[in-house]
Amino acid sequence: MSRSGLTGPSASLTTGYSFAIPPILKFGSRHLQDRFLPDLLRGKKRICIAITEPDAGSDVAGIQTTARKTKDGTHYIVNGTKKWITNGIWSSYATMAIRTGGHGPSGLSLLLVPLLNHPGVSMRPIKVAGHLTSGTTFIELDDVRVPCENLIGEEGQGMKYIMTNFNHERLTIAIGVTRQARVALAAAFEYCMQREAFGKTLMEQPVVRHRLAKAGALLESQAAWIEQFVYQMTRLGREDADVELGGLTALAKAQAGRVLDECARCAVLLFGGNGFTTTGRGEIAERIYRDVPGARVPGGSEDVMLDLAVRQLVKNYQRETKILERPKGSSRL
User: Fold this and answer.
1) pTM of the model
2) Cα separation of 85 and 319, whole Å?
């Protein structure tokens, strides 16, 4: 699906399975898994991951949707809103970040919340510039009763679970976006081989080759980095990978968006008027260009990812440096 150059179709089919089910598998009780996973894994029902809110995007600790226990301790009463939720409009359930405690990350938990046709839940599609078929959804929750047994893991551990989930989400985004950049640049390359201007093909114009070369260098570097990254992920244990590659995962995701931006702009400019048209020879460039913000914002906005990457690298540097410090009172390293 990534080879189509469009992220909407793949997002509509895979996002819930890739990002909403893993927390249930990793942290959910056996009872929770037995109740919900059979229908989800067979495709009989769908699920989404619901983290983002109107006032809490990359700042996950600022989530305001609340879940309060009933007096008999059997249910949570959930109130709040979720926005820009991929697949939400079709989903029977959501792996949802909610606030069961006080302010800050320690008050967050994960809850499996029923959606479709459930009392108190209303959903409507959101019109976005790109990712048109991904089912982007606004969810309102008004006194929604959810059994306490739907809690994923333990109360107050939601931030930990979310952060663990983010690593493979960001890597998945980086892989798909890098492929999308290649589709854009390949389409432009092919067009330049055929389109004639000033008595020769565009490819015979030095300025065109220069533009393709600059975008291509960025793309090949990014693709090689992703290959290296996946190799490291398959060789390191999960705990080591989270520590060593967590910040770099954010950086890879951010850089993928920047590379797509360059390749998509290059394609639109080389397609000329065709790249500004929603049909015809340049429609693939036009569509991919509209998808660029969907690569740079969802899954962690670019500036937040760049900052997170460096902060994580600083922590790793300080930890490794401390290990190498000379023991007090000793001449040995």
Assistant:
1) 0.86
2) 37
